[in-house]
Amino acid sequence: MLLHKYIEKFFKFIIPSPFTIAVILTFITFILAILVSKESTCDQNKFIKILNFWESGLWNPDLLVFTIQMMLMLVLGYSLALSNLVHKIINKIIKYCNTSANAAAIITLCTIIVSFLNWGLGLIFGAIFSRKVGEYASKKNIKMNYPLIGAAGYSGLMVWHGGISGSAPIKIAEDGHFLIKEMGVISLQETVFSSMNLYVSLLLIIFLPLIMYSLGKKSPGKIINLKTNININNESEIKGAEYLDHSRILAYCFSTIILFLCVYNAFIITEKISLNIITPNFINLCLLGIAILIHGNFYNFMNSIKKAINSTSGILIQFPLYFGIMGIMYNTGLVKIMSDFFVSISTETTFPIFTFISAGIVNIFVPSGGGQWVIQGPIIIDAANQLGINIPKCIMALAYGDQITNMLQPFWALPLLGITGLKAKEILPFTLILLLAGSTIFIIGILLF
User: Following DSSP, what letter does each residue of 385-405 receive, concatenated?
Assistant: First the structure.
């Protein structure tokens, strides 16, 4: 039996749903807190206190704001991917996807670039692009390795956390984030646009499409049979006040006002171009304005939102559980114990590597960059402060580890699998190759910088 089949069976029979994992992690954290807590009180009082720590984390207002920010980022990016403009762009590129090799390379390149801008947009863009290439090949009777094409469409999930919409980098760029006392505000200039990340991103953009091209050359595929199944906007009869929903003038006026505010805040108030303006709220405001603008009316925009909203269910229900775990860890001293352990086994050189590896492992069980940042971030920052290591570098190491094992963890592949009609076991052999190539590039970047 091949390696990818063992991995598929592992996820299917051993790893439960992400929500169940979040609950199990909560129980584990609770038990650990009872064992290590230094409170010299009776077991009943200790039990109630830890429960209160959990509840205080569960409804932490700052972290609930973070939840909404991440949900909006996914939904608005998803909405952009469902626009007619994006589909027209894809249709213009498709004619160059006339072989498995060409298609795999082009889809990988485009998806990586788009995912660097917004992970929700990249996730659905890659899925739709892959599907349309499959439909094009089916219509033209072109031999195509469709699973390879699907893997190419999923490749953006291994670069997203190092991009402009990465949960950890953009959150710490916002004034008042939950770790501000430990690390202050760190702009994207020190993380996403650092020399290390730009170098790593350039290597990914160059080598990953080449690797996928090579795989396509070795395995050209076969004739596939796919029917067109992507409908963007379903028009209906317009009556009365519904004309306002379909009004281009109203949509253009509203989106123009939003985008004017974005430009005003970015360039006029600051008086100079600065990356400090890029925060979750700024990104979401820009996405809202652009999404309404390119959909052309509120009806099409809201239609895309309805299709996108289902994808946020995991964030909505799981994030509070992660916040509860953080509340226990912070208030019982678990964060300090874990960070002290990392300090004891690490040096300035090895700590970012350990961060990368541990983040990759944690992502298998917590397939959410924002949730993982909430749980693992305090440990990493405390240890980095003790070791005197560059904090932005450690944050990017966490981001790299979190995103790379998306090629192993099929949770975020579900939208792509639904759109393309592929199965996880079909794309897994190729995403594993992407994982190995990406891990090599990330580790080289961490060591060199």
Answer: HHHT--HHHHHHHHHHHHHHG
Q: Would you place residue 6 in the very low, low, confident or very high pLDDT band (cuts 50, 70, 90)?
A: low
Q: Which of 34-48, 100-114, 222-236, 321-335 is the most confident on average?
A: 100-114
Q: Yes or no: say if 65 and 321 are a contact pair by the CB < 8 Å rule.
A: no
Burial 191-227 (b: 16+ CB within 10 A, else e): bbebebbeebbebbeeebbebbbebbeebebeebebe
CB atoms within 10 A of CB 268: 9
Report angle CA 420, 421, 426 to the nearest 5 degrees. 95
d(CA 298, CA 245): 5
128 and 87 Cβ atoms separated by less than 8 Å: yes
Which of 431, 444, 368 minimizes the C-alpha distance to 399?
A: 368
SS3 344: helix
DSSP letter for each residue of 89-128: HHHHHHTT--SHHHHHHHHHHHHHHHHHH-HHHHHHHHHH
* Spatial CB neighbours of 385, under 8 Å, sequence gap ≥ 6: 182, 183, 391
In this structure, the dihedral spanned by the alpha carbons of residues 336, 342, 343 and 349, taken in order and rounded to 10 degrees, is -140
What local confidence, expressed as pLDDT, does residue 312 receive?
85
Rounded CA-CA distance 233/360 in Å is 38
Which of 87, 33, 76, 88 shows the shortest CA–CA distance to 57? 33
Instruction: Provide the CB-side half-sphere exposure for 348 (13 A, CA).
Output: 5
Residues 364, 15 contacting (CB under 8 angstroms): yes
CA pair distance 449, 446, nearest whole angstrom: 6
Other Cβ atoms closer than 10 A to 163: 25
Q: What is the pLDDT of residues 138-159, one digit of tens each?
A: 999 999 999 999 999 999 999 9
Using CA atoms of 182, 188, 189, 195 in order, give the dihedral in degrees to the nearest 10. 100
Contact 130, 107 (CB under 8 A): yes
């929500």: which residue's tokens?
Answer: 19
pLDDT (average), residues 195-204: 96
* Residue 114: per-residue pLDDT: 95
Whether the per-residue pLDDT at 137 is higher than 90: the answer is: yes
Task: Report the length, in residues, of the chain.
Answer: 449
